């Protein structure tokens, strides 16, 4: 960690934090929580409380859903062009305010400023993409096979939605849900993670400025997510739940959603394999590895979790990535050039360390790092371990930290077996210069997404999502808006 990380806020940071709303947003108004409680949001780089905001009670969640239900019909009846233009204005405003959004994310979540700016760009693209998709909601019209009538297929908004987002991408996970919901004509209640609620509150202020009508987006921030969410999910007026977060919470929410037979979208955990074949361009593979592993300090569902490298090049690959990792600047995300910021909290540091120690205990070799960093903030050394043995916890669990773990393989079948040996199936990365092998891997790897000779795949124009226990549904692309539409078929007899 760089030397001076003491809690000294710049005037700009203080002014920005001051300008972030600290109340709930319900029916177009900023309101206090009925609980009288507060959430103290901390900077993970220092542990300092940076803002105190409203902590919603069950009643506030109910009021937010009431507001979404009340606004549903008029929003669905709002011209698609108008809905799209509000999203487009939001996109433009986000570009104007990008530096504020980036700084705010760095302060509440810890990621380096350059990465936070990258998230603003990525998160903003969902606003632009779905502003364009709002006017492309189409149907079908044609004769039935018997020739006795006309079949009309239209798409209607699903109805009021509940959107639950995680802490690791505070802006992009919100826009990835809010934008398609609004484009489709759905109203929403949004619940960000209690660890990083400020970005969502700041974003909703931006939506107000973009001209969003009251009640279309409502935000509740709460420290009691289960208690506040349960009655919303149980309410028969809710029609859809979209969740991004861990697989165990997602599974519980799917069970709860069964009662009302809710439409659900689930973006859950990952355990991405990063497979490097002996014929790979090693320079590209190392560049890809660095971004796939250390983006967001390893705290991404798409983070490469298991580096599965052909035995003939495993040592060379390990040497090269270690060289790169050894010179990573570590520190507060607001400091120039920092690559490794803090993890979200001390629990995350302890979890990363447990996985590393378990792997080392089972025979892996430590090449660099391997320890928490003492002092203020929740920092863990960027770490490389090689020769990870089967049965190690690190091969089964999401690391969610800056730890690169290498396992050797012998041949293509062995690589596929190891890569698919997980209940997760979000994304995989494959490095090979053999085109035919690349194509085979697209078919053989059980993941919803794949990067072929590239370490990052996310794009607002592409369908993001997983198979197996990584989730249900897709966000982004042509598919993203479908998650918020129901198909309606009407038969009109000819006589
Ligand atoms: P988490 O603990 O599952 O929390 C996710 C969200 O759910 C938070 O807003 C959380 O609120 C809320 N929540 C927790 N328990 C709840 C309950 N009983 N009822 C309603 N809401 C509840 O996950 P996380 O630690 O924030 O995020 C990390 C996980 O997200 C990782 O597993 C990562 O892989 C996954 N993720 C997946 C994707 C994807 O697209 N597939 C993208 C990003 C992250 P509180 O925290 O305030 O309780």
Automatic annotation (TrEMBL):
It holds the Pfam family Aldedh. Keywords: Oxidoreductase. One of its GO terms (biological process) is gamma-aminobutyric acid catabolic process. GO terms for molecular function: succinate-semialdehyde dehydrogenase (NAD+) activity. SUPFAM superfamilies: ALDH-like (SSF53720). The active site is at residue 267. InterPro entries: Ald_DH/histidinol_DH (IPR016161), Ald_DH_C (IPR016163), Ald_DH_CS_GLU (IPR029510), Ald_DH_N (IPR016162), Aldehyde_DH_dom (IPR015590), Aldehyde_DH_Superfamily (IPR050740). PROSITE patterns: ALDEHYDE_DEHYDR_GLU. Belongs to the aldehyde dehydrogenase family. This is NAD-dependent succinate-semialdehyde dehydrogenase. It comes from Microterricola viridarii. The lineage of its organism: Bacteria, Bacillati, Actinomycetota, Actinomycetes, Micrococcales.
